């Protein structure tokens, strides 16, 4: 069981802002040897690198790569550069994500929302992990971690975010299966943590309303919970606690009863009506 990231190489996708930036700060504060930042926004990435460099004061090497993870070919090229210039990461945080919302599925723009959402949220973590997992498995002397940031939306269908919910459901299914495969193969040095938070106050879900028992989450609280779970190798993080309860209720209640009591009664199905996003 690892208790710190001190001396580790940490790669974070979607690292220029929001939760990705906060994970990078946490890695630096705990003495990571290197923090590797992937993001498609070159300008924001540059500002974040400058901020993190001032915070690190040379104790942690900061490496940045402009990568659009929707481009699966770019993932392979960038991963090769990371291995050559920095080394294989010990900790991978698949954080990058996009959301399209506030429109019914048939009103979205003829597939142009669907394709990038599935590529970034579902396919990219698989391709990125496939690039770095062999190196993690080969290093039996250091524990490794893979953190997959999914969403409560992947556990429960919700109006006005059909493709987003589908992408996160795919991510959850793959992440859980990968964890089980590693355990069956007795690769005990690599642990996978799947994270399913409700709405987080980063601006990504601006306008969304937290349902009853699932208030909008504070980003710092989420980072702290995810980080601690990652270090101890916990398989699942559900935030808030009501996300776990909704999964249980979805399994035991008839569909129409669940729709009426939880979906409509607790406001889950109305939570995206005022969504504007960033």
From TrEMBL:
Q: Which Pfam families match?
A: adh_short
Classification via InterPro entries? NAD(P)-bd_dom_sf, Sc_DH/Rdtase_CS, SDR_fam
**GO MF annotations, alphabetized:** oxidoreductase activity, acting on the CH-OH group of donors, NAD or NADP as acceptor
Q: Tell me which CDD domains the record gives.
A: 17beta-HSDXI-like_SDR_c
The record's keywords, sorted A to Z, are: Oxidoreductase
In the UniProt record, does the keyword Oxidoreductase occur? yes
What the record says about family reads: Belongs to the short-chain dehydrogenases/reductases (SDR) family.
The entry's protein name is SDR family NAD(P)-dependent oxidoreductase
Q: Which organism is it from?
A: Agromyces atrinae
